[in-house]
Amino acid sequence: MVKNELVVKDNALINASYNLEVTEQRLILLSIIRARETGEGITAESKLEIHASEYANRFNVTKEAAYYSLKSAVANLFNRQFSYNQQYKNTNKIETVKSRWVSSISYVDDLAILRITFAPEVVPLITKLEKHFTSYQLKQVTQLTSKYAIRLYEILIAWRELGKTPVLNMEDIRFKLGLEPGDYPRIDTFKKRVLEPAIEQINSYTDIETSYEQFKEGRTISSLRFYFKEKLIQKNVSIPKSEDSFLLKISQKQIDYFANKLAHDDVFASSYAEVGESYIDLEKRLLLKLSNPKFVEKNIHHLIRLGFRI
After folding, report:
1. 1 and 125 belong to one structural domain
2. Residue 131 scores a pLDDT above 80
3. Is the model's pLDDT at 61 over the cut of 50?
4. Same structural domain for residues 160 and 246?
5. Per DSSP, which regions of 31-179 are E strands?
6. CB 141 within 8 A of CB 148
């Protein structure tokens, strides 16, 4: 069974401009998960290994396709770049940073293993778990075959708590999707080749359903706002009434397990975590809360979504 690996990116990276092919985005995501799984953090010298069989299993492709993806990444991913904006020191000035994704990349042909070392600028952007981050489960994007669908999904869920994005001007949208000025300059072509296919895949294969509203300046579409909602994964679930709260008592083992799951769940944490609260502090608070049947009952839909069975 494939685990629900958590992908965490600093929002500076979510809002960055880059144009990676689907296979390259997938390898970056697997590398981010590998970096987090070490439990010791990573540095600009850390080498992360991805095996072709892991790529094949995660993204439901043949071993031959996985071998090809890893081998081609050695040449292609090394040359890929991205840019993002950040505050310059403690001023109100904006600094535009450009960086490669990786500082080194290699492939062990006989073992079908890709070895990646992230560039120094990337490391803090994929390992920080503090104030400004976006997280989601890898399984949400494993069936997306449009590179724009993956990027749009990430952009949307950065606003998961509100269920809508701000009004985004077309230049900003194109920037975040990694489009060059000459790529689909006509809005009808952009919608047909980029936006609509991405939305169709997101609505078909991820945990959210999205739509958008258009804004015009004169006759020209100048900006969009995206609306989205979480899909109801569990259907026909019978929730006990208040008088049956005793049924919702859970064991200490379950408390330990679901405190950790809830603390790292983007949907739950976005509405329950306190401002600036770390995963660890939230988990400690949940260890106490989950011993209260009323708290369990109030949040039963989150628990069911994460695997709890009544």
Report:
1. yes
2. no
3. yes
4. no
5. 48-51, 81-87, 94-100, 102-108, 113-118, 133-137, 168-169
6. no
